[in-house]
Amino acid sequence: MLALPAEQLIGKVVNLGSGVDRSILEIAETIKKLMGSHSPIELLGERPGQVVRHTCDASLALALLDWKPDIEFKEGLEESITWYQQNQSLWASQRWLRHIPIVTASGKREYH
Is 109:102 a contact under the CB 8 Å cutoff? Predict the structure, then answer.
């Protein structure tokens, strides 16, 4: 049930998340462990505007939608991994996005 009428939500950006910050490396290591991978994580140079940690402020979701997370981070990742494994036909054509050339702040050309 919406805490506000739907028309009051138009144009608002509502973030959904736990509010717990995690480093990109921590997220990658957790995904790797959940998938049973033994491949090393390859660290690349930072893209312009790259963030080191992700933290979501979901206070607007709580205020507007009365929403708060009801599953733990690891469980959510497990569900996401299962979805990706079961729905490869929906995302496989986007693999080319893994190799986009980026010019770093120092002028170095890298593929991310």
Answer: yes
Residue-wise pLDDT for 75-91, tens only, equals 999 999 999 999 999 98
d(CA 26, CA 70): 21
- pLDDT tens digits, 31-67: 999 999 999 998 877 766 777 777 888 988 888 888 8
Of 68, 94, 79, 99, which Cα lies nearest the Cα of 31?
Answer: 79
Whole-structure pTM value:
0.68
Q: Which of 26, 80, 71 is nearest to 53 (CA)?
A: 26
Q: What is the DSSP string of 60-99?
A: HHHHHH-----S-HHHHHHHHHHHHHHTHHHHGGGGGGGG
